């Protein structure tokens, strides 16, 4: 079964040997068979060889590079799907309907997140206002500065965004046309999954580790990523009763949107976490 | 599915052994013991891997055992490891 690999290490190189990616940093070396990977998220990568890019293209592996304020990505899959789906994504008359579904899912997942913490929260107002209020509440709950929480969320979001990006591209959609964020479909998906992944990660990490963590060091980043990885691989149930790991929910949501665009009779229900 | 590949390539066919090892690594094979690799593949890729192994071994001499343990058997494997690397 294919999986994604998140690599955070200072100044490593990505190369190729036979049909494997080779990750090298100083005297440390690790090989990843391209058949076992669908996504490589690289933080701290210094150099990627053209042969590694060629292997990624041959075996449909998406490569996402994490920078300070954005991610850049490489995929060889866009041109392989039919264009009809992308045209529908561009010109759909149901854009507003899809956007409201995404907003509703975000509010639902946010409420589900806070209800697990036994914190009363009502998602009222505009999307950004709801998000800021929720962040303030989380900051008070954890007893950690809001600015620190925001920077940790931003860093961890890149990895979930990369997972969303891969799911979107694999479903045959283009990541450049969004519904809530007009220019990015991956940001739309990130919105839906953020409370269940990144926000939950902050709670599991806990205020003690959070206040002492150094985001500038790769050790600190790797520690956060370990927690996030654990959450993404954990089985979660949605309101439809489907129980599977979160990264599979991300893929299912992208496929769901693609099939809704081609056949609107089915309806589009983005991921909504079950509340107990 | 999990697949365990055990091979014995005689002395004199060292390059063949290296090629076999490389091929197993290309399929995501994890080194377990000398001449024992564990691979996790879907059915389609497992068939491809078996074909490739046949092709490599046919060029020289050797024996390769490809074992498909069921999930229950796999979970019941007892590992006793006292070696520290």
Order of helices and strands of chain A: EEEEHEEHHHHHHHEEH
Our estimate of the beta-strand percent of chain B is: 15-25%
Please write the CATH class name of chain B.
Alpha Beta
The number of distinct β-strands of chain B equals 4
Q: Rough shape of chain B?
A: globular
Strand residue percentage of chain A: 15-25%
Average residue pLDDT of chain B: 91
Largest interface: A-B, 9 and 10 residues
Strand arrangement across the biggest beta sheet of chain A? 3-2-1-4-5-6
Distance between the termini of chain B: 28 Å
The CATH architecture classification of chain B is 2-Layer Sandwich
What ranges of chain A have pLDDT less than 50 throughout 5 or more consecutive residues?
Answer: none
Sheet with the most strands, sense and barrel status of chain A: 6 strands, mixed
In total, the number of domains of chain B comes to 1
Rg of chain B computed from alpha carbons, rounded to a whole number of angstroms: 13 Å
| Tally of alpha and pi helices of chain A | 9
Written description of the protein model:
The complex is a heterodimer of chains A (276) and B (85). In chain A, β5 (62-66) and β6 (71-74) form a beta hairpin. Chain A contains nine helices and eight strands. Chain A has a six-stranded mixed β-sheet. Chain A has a two-stranded antiparallel sheet with strand order 7-8. In chain A, α3 runs parallel beside α6 and α6 (185-205) crosses α8 (218-232). Chain A folds into two domains: 3-74, Ribosomal Protein L15, Chain: K, domain 2; 80-266, CRISPR-associated endonuclease Cas1, C-terminal domain (Four Helix Bundle (Hemerythrin (Met), subunit A), Up-down Bundle), CATH 1.20.120.920. In chain A, 51% of the residues lie in helices and 20% in strands. With 276 residues, chain A is of the alpha/beta class. Chain B has three helices and four strands, in the order βαββαβα. Chain B has helices at residues 14-26, 43-58, 71-75, and strands at residues 2-8, 30-33, 36-40, 63-67. Chain B has a single domain (2-75), classed as Alpha-Beta Plaits (2-Layer Sandwich). With 85 residues, chain B is of the alpha+beta class. Chain B is globular, with a radius of gyration of 13 Å. The longest helix of chain B has 16 residues, at 43-58. Chain B has a four-stranded antiparallel β-sheet with strand order 2-3-1-4, with helices on one face. At the A-B interface, loops of A face α1 of B.
